[in-house]
Write a structure and sequence with these properties.
7 helices; Alpha-Beta Plaits; alpha+beta; 4-stranded antiparallel sheet
Length: 198
C-alpha cells in the first residue's frame, strides 16, 4: 500500500516500494529494466547508495522494491523519489508510444486526476505516492533485503526456484559479488556517514 507520509529525516536507509498504475506490467511492456538502473546510476552520482533491489514485472503486478542509503543533500528524500519516478515515467511513456501501445497510453491518460490534468500532467504511470520503511538497524535491513530477494520465488509469482536465478535482483550480487547491477553491501555502510552534507 502506498503512503503520502513525508519522510522527515534528510538521510538514512529506506526500503522503498514504487508501484505502477493499476499494477500494469509497464517495465515488461517496455523492456524498461535499464530505466530503473539509469535512475540508480543517477542516485549514485548524487552520493546515495543502492543496497538491494528487485524490479518485478514478468507475469505479475508491477512494482520495484529497493533499499537506498540516502546521503544528506539539499533535496528531501520524498523529492528525490518523486524526481526518480518522474524520470522513469517519461522514459516508459516514450517507449509505449514508440511501441504503438495505444490502449495502454489511453489507460494511463485516463488515470490522471482532474487536478493533475490542470497542472499539465498527461499520464499516470505510477501510483502517486510510494511506500517506505525507515531501516534503523542491520537486523531490519537484513529482513527487508531478504524480503526483496525472496519476492520473485514465493507466493503467486514463482518466477524462479532460487533467489539468485532472478536476473533483475541484487541477490546474486550479494551471494557471488557479480550481478546485473552492482550494489553497496549494507554492512559496508556502517563506516559511511550518511548525514554528512555533500
Amino acid at each position: 500500500m502506498s503512503t503520502k507520509r513525508q519522510i522527515i529525516e534528510s538521510s538514512g536507509i529506506y526500503f522503498i516500494t514504487i508501484t505502477c498504475y493499476e499494477w500494469l506490467p509497464l517495465f515488461e511492456l517496455t523492456n524498461g529494466y535499464d530505466i530503473v538502473y539509469k535512475w540508480f546510476d543517477y542516485l549514485k552520482k548524487q552520493g546515495h547508495y543502492i543496497k538491494g533491489y528487485v524490479p518485478i514485472a514478468i507475469g505479475m503486478p508491477n512494482h520495484v522494491h529497493v533499499l537506498i542509503g540516502f546521503s544528506q543533500n539539499a533535496k528531501s528524500i520524498n523529492t528525490v523519489i518523486g524526481n526518480g519516478k518522474r524520470f522513469m515515467a517519461y522514459e516508459i511513456v516514450k517507449r509505449i508510444e514508440q511501441a504503438g501501445e495505444h490502449s495502454t497510453l489511453t489507460k494511463l491518460m485516463e488515470g490522471v486526476s482532474t487536478r493533475d490534468q490542470k497542472r499539465g500532467k498527461l499520464h499516470e504511470v505510477f501510483v502517486p505516492s510510494f511506500d517506505w520503511k525507515d531501516c534503523r538497524s542491520n537486523r531490519f535491513i537484513k529482513q527487508k533485503l531478504d524480503y526483496i530477494h525472496d519476492n520473485p520465488c514465493r507466493g503467486i509469482w514463482n518466477l524462479v526456484m532460487t533467489e539468485t536465478e532472478y536476473i533483475h535482483s541484487s541477490a546474486k550480487y550479494y551471494e557471488t559479488g557479480e550481478g546485473i547491477y552492482a550494489v553497496t553491501n549494507y554492512t559496508e555502510l556502517e563506516d559511511i556517514d550518511l548525514t554528512k552534507a555533500l
